[in-house]
Design a protein that fits this description.
Blueprint (H helix, E strand, L loop, with lengths): L2 H24 L3 E12 L2 E12 L5 E12 L2 E8 L3 E3 L3 E11 L1 H12 L7 E11 L2 E11 L1
Length: about 150
């Protein structure tokens, strides 16, 4: 076999093994909604999320982005995104703050329900999206219940 082809083949194999190991380790990063704060920016309602990113591994990771959609009691309510790099050192946690500008359509249904007297016994807020950790993408599905 050609020595250049052998080096390329071995290099590719090592890269694939490294990528698989890194993907396995990065998938252990845990995201949690720590708090939700409603507010307004002008006349626009905003939900601010305090997110904990926990790293139980011996490696340091960089969260490059976190994006997704927010729903309230199963109804689309808005979009979140953060493109600020956040470093999570080994065996520690970091915090991210995300703001969701609420969509008029998502809020209108909630307001109609309140006007009609259909007040939910609990509010379930859900974020479904994608996290980019060290250039590896994986799904994020977070819930926060207000009783």
């Amino acid at each position: 076999m050609n020595p250049i082809a052998t080096v390329a083949l071995v290099g590719t194999g090592l890269w694939l093994v490294n990528k698989a190991v890194k993907t396995s380790v990065v998938n252990r990063v845990n995201f949690l909604i720590d708090a939700v704060r409603p507010s307004y920016e002008g006349l626009n309602p905003v939900l601010t999320f305090d997110i904990k990113a926990q790293n139980p591994t011996n490696d340091t990771f960089t969260i490059k982005s976190l994006t997704g959609n927010v729903s309230v009691n199963g109804q689309y309510a808005g979009n979140i995104s953060s493109f600020q790099e956040t470093i999570i050192t080994a065996n520690s946690e970091s915090r991210l703050t995300l703001k969701a500008k609420m969509s008029a359509g998502g809020l209108s249904e909630q307001i109609v329900n309140l006007i009609q007297g259909r007040v939910p016994s609990q509010v379930l807020i859900r974020i479904q999206g994608t996290a980019n950790v060290d250039t590896l993408l994986f799904p994020v599905d977070l819930t926060y219940k207000i009783v």
